[in-house]
């Protein structure tokens, strides 16, 4: 979103993320895939760092949906851990998962659409590029801290 592109590209990215996390979320909740929580949480933190770092150097956004799909697979496993802790009833599990994923998709599209227009509005100002860099650097710092926490480097 911060790199530009239209709403179509942005919706493609959001939908790729939701589709990917829906796949791994479903597989994990059905106990078909399982990875250690610290690994998943560390990978999620690194994915945040990667995307923020990309905002500093990448110019092309058309293929970002592929990267986002990959990160969505990782994030789906994180969502699964939360849902598994909730001890979901196995009756109507497919409906529960579909409802959750549809809700996430609608929520993401709403938030991203609002943010898209806010970013577009800000781009008219000469300092917008600096803001993008500072937001990206701040996100890298926060994501790096989360990663360090998950691997036990920071308590």
UniProtKB/TrEMBL annotation:
Protein name per UniProt: HupE/UreJ family protein
Keyword Membrane (UniProt): yes
Keywords (A to Z) from UniProt: Membrane, Transmembrane, Transmembrane helix
InterPro entries reported for this sequence: Put_HupE_UreJ
Positions of transmembrane segments: 32-53, 65-83, 95-119, 131-148
Pfam families: HupE_UreJ_2
């Amino acid at each position: 979103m911060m790199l530009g592109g239209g709403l179509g590209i942005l919706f493609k990215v959001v939908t790729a993320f939701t589709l990917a996390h829906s796949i791994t979320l479903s597989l994990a909740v059905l106990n078909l895939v399982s990875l250690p929580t610290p690994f998943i949480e560390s990978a999620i933190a690194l994915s945040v760092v990667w995307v923020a770092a990309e905002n500093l150097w990448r110019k092309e956004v058309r293929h970002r949906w592929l990267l986002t799909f990959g990160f969505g697979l990782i994030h789906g496993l994180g969502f699964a851990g939360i849902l598994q802790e909730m001890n979901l009833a196995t009756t109507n599990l497919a409906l529960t998962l579909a409802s959750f994923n549809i809700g996430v998709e609608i929520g993401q599209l709403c938030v991203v659409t609002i943010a898209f227009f806010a970013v577009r509005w800000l781009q008219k100002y000469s300092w917008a590029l600096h803001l993008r860099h500072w937001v990206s650097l701040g996100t890298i710092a926060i994501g790096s801290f989360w990663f360090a926490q998950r691997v036990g480097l920071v308590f």
